[in-house]
Amino acid sequence: MSAGSSVEGSTWKLRGEDTAGAFLLFEDEMSLGKVTPMHTHPDADETLYVLAGEILINMDGIEHNIAAGGLAVAPRGVPHAFKVLRDKTRILCFHTPGSSQAFYDGASEPLGPDIEAHLVDFDRIRESGRANGGIEIVGPPPFPQPRG
């Protein structure tokens, strides 16, 4: 894939190979209620800039609401997870260095015009992290589950 291609609700702006490994940058559009597992990036800092909508981020046990125009920085090794609070939330995600590309490629599934996004596959994420590095799952999402 080259810059500008879409994967799993994400649009690559710059891949690691585009920046000689200095960083990677992608935009992610997400649905209301999407959550990530509690995780760390052992070898990269992750910066999330909210373009539209809102997320709740749990950073090392402390929760922060981040709305459009807000920024969250997860330094390498710091446990974090987030939950999408508004439909069609869009974030710009910046990893430095760009060493996590293989993880994202392994954890993602290309979406075609007739394929809809689906729930996050935590097992696939965990396996890609094990095989490719870039992420370590340290627990389930830390957010209360809605009552049904």
* H-E string: EEEEEEEEEEHHE
Mean pLDDT: 86
Strand line-up of the largest beta sheet: 1-2-3-10-5-8
Sheet with the most strands, sense and barrel status? 6 strands, antiparallel
Oligomeric category? single chain
Low-pLDDT residue intervals, each spanning 5 or more residues: 1-8
- Global Rg: 14 Å
Query: Strand share of the residues?
Result: 35-45%
Distance from first to last alpha carbon? 40 Å
What structural category arises from helix and sheet content? mainly beta
The share of residues in helices is 10-25%
Figure out the total of helices.
2
Shape: globular
Q: How many E-type strands?
A: 11
Q: Could you characterize what this model shows?
A:
- The protein is mainly β and 148 residues long.
- The chain has two helices and eleven strands, in the order ββββββββββααβ.
- The longest helix has 11 residues, at 122-132.
- The N and C termini lie far apart (40 Å).
Tags for this entry?
six-stranded antiparallel sheet; single chain; 148 residues; three-stranded antiparallel sheet; disordered N terminus; mainly beta; 12% helix; globular; 11 strands
Give a brief outline of the structure.
The protein has 148 residues and is mainly β.
